[in-house]
Design goal:
Keywords: Membrane, Transmembrane, Transmembrane helix. Helices cover 60% and strands 8% of the residues. By secondary structure, the protein is an alpha+beta fold. Among the domains are: 46 residues; 43 residues; 115 residues, no CATH class. A 7-stranded mixed beta sheet has the order 1-2-3-7-4-5-6. Strand 1, helix 5 and strand 2 form a beta-alpha-beta unit.
Length: 311
């Protein structure tokens, strides 16, 4: 008969299958026993009633130790007490990382503050330099304006002074002309023949006649030298042509002024073209004197004689 078909055979097979199913539980029995013991301890604590915390903890610990000893387990072999030692490096690492991040954040904030302070200082320095430049430019402009105004005032004063001097000179000249005209206006007749020194032929007849009239009517003119023609003269329409005379008054400036005044008073009668006296030229009886260039000497600048060009 086959073993599986008998009762005993079925029982043996059932036992074998049961043993095979329970095989893996053999390694987990200590943990199960420990869990059952802990649950029993909790149940005992609930049934006994509330105790002081120290007594309950002590009783629970004692019962747990007793149960563990009964099961053949060591109280030191559980993972509960080894966990804090395993987690301590992680906690230290986390604390170190937190401290480092805080230090880095503080350093970044400090650097940002320093950078901002530098930017603020540079901006303030630039603004101060710009203000100083503007103030310097304004001061320079004010100084230049003041100098220009002062120069303008000085120029205006000089011009006014020059105009005043010119007006005084014209008044004095007009007074001299009036005085000379009043002195000689009554006489144009010639009573004396003028002695003229010529080195290049005779002067023109109208020039001789004018000289005769001048020496006859201007006191002191008949005793001076009269220069006539000469080839060395620079003006071909003057001395070389016989149309000019030099009344050599030498240092007698009053006599020179009198001869000039007489010619101005009788400009048309004498046929005057122009006069030169004391480095000035006069081209009309009522005109103004024109200053001539400096020719370098008393005679060349006509300070010792009156030059008259006749038509």
């Amino acid at each position: 008969m086959h073993p599986r078909t008998t009762t005993s055979g079925r029982s043996a097979a059932s036992v074998n299958r049961s043993n095979r199913r329970r095989g893996p539980l053999a390694g987990r029995r200590p943990g199960i026993y420990l869990g059952v013991a802990a649950a029993g301890a909790v149940l005992v604590n609930v049934l006994v009633g509330p105790q002081p915390a120290a007594t309950a903890e002590a009783g629970t610990a004692t019962e747990s130790v007793a149960v563990a000893q009964a099961l053949g387990l060591s109280a030191q072999s559980g993972p509960a007490e080894t966990a804090p030692a395993d987690l301590q490096p992680l906690e230290d690492l986390a604390a170190t990382r937190s401290s480092r991040e805080a230090a880095e954040t503080a350093a970044q904030q400090s650097q940002a503050a320093a950078d901002q302070a530098t930017v603020d200082r540079q901006r303030a320095e630039a603004e101060a330099a710009a203000r100083a430049a503007e103030e310097a430019a304004a001061a320079q402009a004010a100084a230049e304006a003041a100098a220009a105004a002062q120069a303008a005032e000085a120029a205006a004063a000089e011009q006014a002074e020059a105009q005043a001097d010119a007006a005084e000179a014209e008044e004095a000249e007009a007074a001299e002309s009036s005085q000379g005209a009043a002195t000689v206006a009554s006489s144009t007749a010639a009573s004396v023949v003028a002695r003229i020194t010529n080195t290049a032929g005779s002067v023109k007849p109208q020039v001789q006649a004018a000289a005769n009239t001048v020496v006859s009517n201007v006191p002191g003119a008949d005793g001076i030298t009269l220069g006539g023609t000469r080839a060395s003269a620079a003006d071909p329409g003057g001395h070389p042509s016989g149309l000019a005379l030099d009344y050599m008054v030498m240092t007698d400036a009053a006599l020179g002024d009198a001869i000039v005044a007489y010619h101005r008073a009788h400009w048309d009668e004498l046929g005057v073209d122009y006069l030169i006296w004391q480095q000035r030229m006069l081209s009309s009886p009522n005109g103004s004197w024109s200053t001539m260039e400096d020719r370098g000497g008393t005679t060349a600048n006509h300070y010792d004689h009156v030059h008259v060009n006749y038509n």
